Amino acid sequence: MKKFFFYTFLILAIGLFFLLSCARTDCLYDVVASVTAADTSLPAGSILCYGRQYANAVTDDTLSDYLGLGGYPEFKSKIEDLAVFSTLQGEYCELAVMRLYRSSDAADGALFLERRIQAAGRALRLGGKEGHADTAYVRTYGNIVALYMMPDNAAAEKKVKAAL
């Protein structure tokens, strides 16, 4: 009887372990925080969030300024979750991960993030600062769109994909 309870407990524990280890991250803040915290070479930065899961989310105006939504403000209603890491000290870096309600809106999300790369590049050139806008790119994973403007974009992308 003791063996039965022992093996039952062991099977339940292993099942719970696999269930929790395979669970997807619901919060993009956690994804961005895990990617940026793992890289000790990054300068200090902050993570801004937008979406219904965040009590301290940025305002609609801040989101509009960040994405350049002046001509298409309705796009805000298509964003389920957004987390952005950016640095203002030293080398400028930025990592943005946006989850949309529908994957059919991913092309629009990618367009806004491409425009963000262009705007950041212009601002860096005008400010005489260096940054990673020249090597930046945007990737789409279903209904998730990510902007990589990091010292090592490939490593950041690998970590983001693993965390999604």
Description:
This protein is α+β, with helices and mostly antiparallel strands and 164 residues long. The chain has one domain. It has 5 helices and 5 strands; from the N terminus they run ααβαββαββα. The protein has helices at 2-21, 28-37, 60-67, 106-127, 153-163; strands spanning 45-51, 79-87, 94-100, 137-141, 144-149. A 5-stranded antiparallel beta sheet has the order 1-2-3-5-4, with helices on both faces. Strand 2 and strand 3 (94-100) form a beta hairpin. Helix 2 (28-37) crosses helix 5 (153-163). The longest helix is centred in the last third of the chain and has 22 residues, at 106-127. The chain is globular, with a radius of gyration of 19 Å. It starts with a helix and ends with a helix.
Condensed summary:
Helices cover 43% and strands 21% of the residues. The chain is an alpha+beta fold.
Distance between the termini: 42 Å
Stretches where pLDDT is under 50 for at least 5 consecutive residues are: 5-25
Biggest beta-sheet profile: 5 strands, antiparallel
Strand content bin: 15-25%
In the sheet with the most strands, the strands line up as 1-2-3-5-4
Give the structural class: alpha+beta
- Count of helical regions: 5
